[in-house]
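Lecture 7 notes: from sequence to structure.

We start with a single chain of 250 residues. Read the sequence below before looking at the structure.
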Amino acid sequence: MEFSVPPYRIAITHADAAALLEEVSARLRRGEGFALATINLDHLAKLRRDEAFRAAYAAQDLVVADGNPVVWLSRLAGRPVRLVPGSDMVVPMAEAAAQAGVGVALLGATPAALDAAAEALTARVPRLAIVARLAPPMGFDPEGAGADALIDELGRSGARLCFLALGAPKQEIFAARAYRRLPQVGFASIGAGLDFLAGTQRRAPTWMRAAALEWLWRMLSNPARLVPRYVRSALTLPGQAVAAWRLRRR
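Now the structure, written as tokens:
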């Protein structure tokens, strides 16, 4: 499955969680890095408006579907993929890092949330080595001098896997930049994944996720911020459906 975001085409590289985890594990064992993005309808809406975001997304070498509309579009296009939420992959990727014997960095959120997320993560993956916890200040610019300082700190930490919880587009822009500087490090953009682990955000109940209603849970949790976002996302869906149908006919 691929999406046209001129001048780029963004392709989903791995169809399901198992394929992604196999790739991540292999790269960690070989000492190779990556930049992982989890595409959803909100990202597709932002990609239409943000040139820097488009360029950063094109630099991600691993892309999976994090949103049921993307899964539905893939089926319409005749190139079906499965749902792979970034937050669901944090523990499996941490387990892969522990098995490979490499250190992990947590970047984003707040110092308190990072400490709580680290405690929850090491409780579930006892052999995990968390070698850095980095909380950027408010107003963090992923293309500024502060980003360069964080990249330097990540390099000194020896981390080989970095979970980025900065939100889109900051996390993907930072990942693209940091991956160029530290090609031995895997950068995984996971949105609210660390906040879910820390308990600072509550995820939708399992039954709502199974019914593809997680978006409704999130929207009701913060309507002032998320209603406009979901409206913009919904407005992109008809055009994406037409593009998917054309892809199918190709």
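The longest strand covers residues 34-39. Keep this in mind for problem set 3.
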